[in-house]
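STRUCTURE:
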């Protein structure tokens, strides 16, 4: 028996509709119909009239949430717990992110994420390996002793991963520094299905351009963990701005990137090529004021997550807050801000055929937003979870 959601405005990912209802069949969107055409046999749920039903958010960079850090516990349970915690923030699909660590733990994280991805309705869409093939010069909080070049065993393992994840609809994203990986290796990884993203890099614009031609698809938290633009050394940022096909993930929290840089990015890039990430850490969704990251204390203070010396260590934000920041501080239209949190990241990792729109055949992963753009309810695979106490 179909389930119908009616009463709210509907943003399909393409257009904003009034007086329409969304018909769900199990874990899939069956139809979007005028309210007068609701199937008579359906179970109807009437949503508040001042709410907005939108595609669920997709976050491709989540280190932790709800008190859990994937690097600390690279297990199935940790991946599922992070996805559950972020669901309350409107994120219905994510890539648990494992930052630079030793090879054994990296493989443990991949296997755990693979199992979590295979669980129906888990909200885990694969894995993001942020490192270890990155620049020591732009390591940020990554531990330098774990940074290394890929060896044959790495490549054999990594190039086999995408097919294993794809069997469950999942994806493998890898952040690397173009100057630390040669073109042949980039091509081998990209051809296998690994989505490659440049980050934690000090590459020149010329080297970054070469890497884009060799299979790098986008940029991880653009502007952060990479050199600033200099007149005779434009670096990776200008390569990202000037290559229309390159995707750019950004942390829109008012801390990581100056608003004018984000406005410039949105002005320069073609529509659809800028998307939001959180780079979230364990405090998100909790009241905790500190946590430990690979032996270092990270403090939650002044809207930042940082080491005692002030180095940023991920972000204290969820995608709903990032959407609000785009709308209220950057002047981004609501529809595009929502696409930046759903359709565009889904397209970046190749899942836009299933996520990012409310349309027939799409996954029934949805978020219901209040007028202030906070979360009222989410649906993952057609199953609802309300944030409102009754």
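SEQUENCE:
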């Amino acid at each position: 028996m179909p389930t119908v959601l009616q009463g709210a405005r509907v943003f399909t990912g393409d257009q904003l509709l009034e007086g329409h209802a969304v018909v769900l069949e199990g874990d899939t969107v069956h139809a979007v119909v005028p309210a007068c055409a609701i199937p008579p046999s359906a179970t109807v749920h009437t949503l508040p009239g001042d709410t907005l039903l939108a595609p669920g958010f997709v976050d491709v960079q989540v280190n932790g949430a709800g008190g859990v850090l994937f690097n600390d516990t690279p297990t199935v349970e940790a991946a599922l717990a992070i996805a559950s915690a972020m669901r309350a923030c409107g994120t219905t699909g994510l890539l648990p992110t494992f930052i630079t660590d030793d090879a054994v733990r990296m493989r443990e994280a991949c296997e755990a994420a693979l199992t979590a991805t295979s669980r129906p309705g888990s909200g885990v869409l694969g894995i993001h390996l942020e490192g270890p093939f990155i620049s020591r010069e732009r390591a940020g909080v990554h531990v330098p002793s774990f940074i290394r070049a890929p060896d044959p065993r790495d490549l054999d393992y990594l190039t086999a991963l995408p097919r294993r994840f794809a069997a469950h609809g999942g994806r493998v994203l890898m952040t690397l520094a173009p100057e630390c990986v040669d073109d042949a290796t980039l091509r081998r990884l990209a051809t296998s299905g690994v989505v490659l993203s440049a980050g934690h890099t000090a590459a020149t614009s010329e080297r970054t351009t070469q890497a884009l031609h060799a299979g790098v698809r986008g940029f991880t938290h653009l502007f952060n963990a990479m050199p600033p633009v200099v007149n005779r050394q434009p670096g990776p940022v200008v390569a990202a701005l000037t290559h229309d096909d390159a995707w750019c993930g950004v942390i829109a929290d008012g801390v990581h990137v100056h608003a004018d840089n984000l406005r410039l990015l949105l002005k320069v890039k073609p529509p659809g090529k800028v998307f939001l990430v959180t780079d979230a850490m364990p405090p998100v969704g909790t009241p905790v004021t500190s946590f430990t990251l690979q032996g270092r204390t990270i403090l939650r203070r002044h809207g930042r997550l940082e080491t005692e010396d002030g180095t940023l260590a991920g972000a204290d934000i969820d995608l709903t807050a990032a959407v609000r920041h785009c709308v209220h501080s950057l002047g981004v239209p609501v529809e595009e801000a929502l696409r930046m949190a759903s359709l565009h990241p889904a397209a970046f990792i190749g899942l836009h055929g299933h996520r990012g729109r409310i349309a027939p055949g799409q996954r029934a992963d949805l978020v219901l937003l209040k007028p202030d753009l906070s979360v009222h309810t989410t649906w993952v695979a057609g199953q609802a979870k309300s944030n409102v106490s009754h």
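REMARK: The chain has a mean pLDDT of 96.
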